[in-house]
Design a protein that fits this description.
It is a single chain. This protein is mainly alpha-helical. The chain folds into 2 domains: about 1-50, no CATH class; about 60-110. The protein has helices at about 30-45, 50-55, 60-110; strands spanning about 5, 15. It has a two-stranded antiparallel sheet with strand order 1-2. The longest helix is centred in the C-terminal third of the chain and has 52 residues, at about 60-110. The termini are far apart. The structure holds zinc ion.
Length: about 120
């Protein structure tokens, strides 16, 4: 049985995946996205000459770079779309609960009125 721990990114408690006992980031969309950015940064720090090397030895490298940044932008757009959808869903649920409460109160009030 795994124990609850606090997410390194957002600080909220979460249960780590049983297949990934060393998990330090919760599975929320925001935190997973942040983790992706961090991984990319770390990789670049580990391979500081990678881009330079490629640029001087491979003429198609610039094109690859361009393609890669386009891919990234596409993923980024997808993330934003998911993010917005998640929030829309949350808002929808909120409004549904709100209306349900509203109707309940309204019925209660109307039911309490004296009948003639
Ligand atoms: Zn988190």
């Amino acid at each position: 049985m795994s124990e609850e721990r606090n997410c390194k990114s957002c600080g909220k408690p979460f249960l780590p995946n049983k297949y990934r006992p060393n998990q330090t980031i919760c599975s929320s969309l925001e935190c997973q996205y942040q983790r992706q950015l961090d991984n990319m940064k770390k990789w670049r720090e580990r391979n500081p000459n990678y881009f330079k090397y490629k640029e001087t030895h491979d003429s198609s490298w610039k094109e690859t770079c361009r393609q890669r940044s386009l891919d990234w932008r596409k993923r980024h757009q997808e993330y934003l779309k998911l993010y917005r959808e998640e929030h829309r869903e949350r808002h929808k649920n909120y409004m549904r609960d709100y209306m349900r409460e509203y109707r309940k109160k309204k019925n209660l009030r109307e039911g309490a009125e004296p009948t003639r």
